[in-house]
Amino acid sequence: MPDRATPSSTAPSPASSAPSAGDSLTIAVVDPSRARAAILEEGLRAVEGARVVVIPDTADLLDRLSALSPDVVVIHLESPSRDLLEQMFGVSRLVERPVAMFVDRTDAPMMQAAVDAGISAYIVDGLRAERIKPIIEIAILRFNAFARLQRELTEARSELADRKLIERAKGILMSAKGLTEDEAYKQLRRKAMNEKRKIVDIARAIVTAADLLG
């Protein structure tokens, strides 16, 4: 028998590591229909080692998911209203887990909203037991690929910001001390080595001090 989720008052925290299709997974199934949930459970039996927890309604859904902290969330909505879909898309943005959503009807704006919300798999009129396992696997792969791209983008932006900060600190040293660009960088590097700090931290301190002094 599947477990039943219980409410909590905290918000979900990000997964400590991205799930893998080969891991032992906790899968939350959100479906108000016991008959449809049974179809999902049947399909999820093919996922080796999976623990399936049924959440029979959408009340306090975020709190319930927080208490459960699942690796994957599967949502089925038979005839969803636009408001309910928007609510589920909001949940997808917050849980930071792969979300597979099955709906019986949709339209182009809702499909676009699903993409924008980060839904990993959005399946229209396709709830069949034999399809569940491959859909879950592709949802996990898409989620991990998107998370990796986000991480790489964040790192690239951080590196660019660091380079700009170092360039500004070099400019301040060159202007204040009459140094060449190479000499200014060497001073930054030497101070960072002496203080066992990163060059960008030294640069940030120089820029902050210059801003304070006007």
Task: Explain what this protein looks like in three dimensions.
It is a single chain. The longest helix has 49 residues, at 129-177. The protein is of the alpha/beta class and 214 residues long. The chain folds into two domains: 3-150, Response regulator (Rossmann fold), CATH 3.40.50; 152-213, Orthogonal Bundle (Arc Repressor Mutant, subunit A), CATH 1.10.10. It is built from seven helices and six strands, in the order ββαβαβαβαβααα.
Shape: elongated
| CATH homologous superfamily classification of the largest domain | Response regulator
The CATH architecture designation of the largest domain is 3-Layer(aba) Sandwich
Using DSSP, what is the number of strands?
6
End-to-end C-alpha gap: 68 Å
Radius of gyration: 25 Å
The CATH class label of the largest domain is Alpha Beta
- The CATH topology label of the largest domain is Rossmann fold
Q: In total, how many domains does the architecture comprise?
A: 2
Name the beta content range. Answer: 5-15%
Question: Which parts are unreliable, with pLDDT below 50 for 5 consecutive residues or more?
Answer: 1-16
Structural category:
alpha/beta
Q: What letter string, H or E per element, gives the SSE order?
A: EEHEHEHEHEHHH
- As laid out across the biggest beta sheet, the strand order is 1-3-2-4-5-6
